[in-house]
Amino acid sequence: MPAPDSSLIGKVARQLTQAPAYAEAAGARGSLLSVAASSYGWKSEDDEHTQPTGFDPEAARLFEAVVEGAFLVANADGDFDVTEQAAFQHVVVSACAGRVAARQVSALLADLQDQLDEDGMQKRIQMVARAITREEHAREVLRVSSLLAYVSGGVSTVEREVLDKLAAEFKLTNAAVAQAIDDAAHALIE
Q: Where are the alpha helices (DSSP H) in 75-156?
C-alpha cells in the first residue's frame, strides 16, 4: 500500500475526536473512541498496581472493542502491512489527544493480531459484538471503522463484508453500514 496522504490522516483523526452527528443532539462530548480513551489511558502496565481513581473498566473495554472493530476491518483482506499499521496507530493516538500513548496502542494492536491469528475473523467479530451492548455504541464502531478504512484508500469490498458481519452481530441492518460509510465519506470531503 502506498503511504496514506497526511492531510487525509489528519482529517480522519479530527473526525474520530468528534461526536457523530446522531449523538450531538444528545450532548455527546466527543466520539466514543476519544471519550473512552481517557479510561484506557489510565491502565497500568503492571496489573499488580491498583488502578488510579477515575479508571472505568467499562470505558476501557469499550475503547478496546472500538479499536478491535476497526482493526478487523483493516485486516479484512488478510494484509495489514507495516504502512497500514503505522497509519492506523498514528490516527488512533492522534484521535485520543494524548490520553493513550503510542506504546499502549502498539501493544493493543499486537494483542489484537495474536487474538485474530488464534481465533479467526468470525470469532473476533462475535467478541466485539459481545462487548458492545448499546445501539449507539454499535453505530460508533461502524463509523470509526469506516473512517479508518479511508486511511487506506476507502472501504473496499472485503472491508464492507466485515462491516456487514459486525452489523449483523450488533443486530443492525446493512443500512446502518451504508450510513456509516456515507457519513465517513462526507465528513472527509469537508
A: 82-95, 102-119, 121-131, 135-151
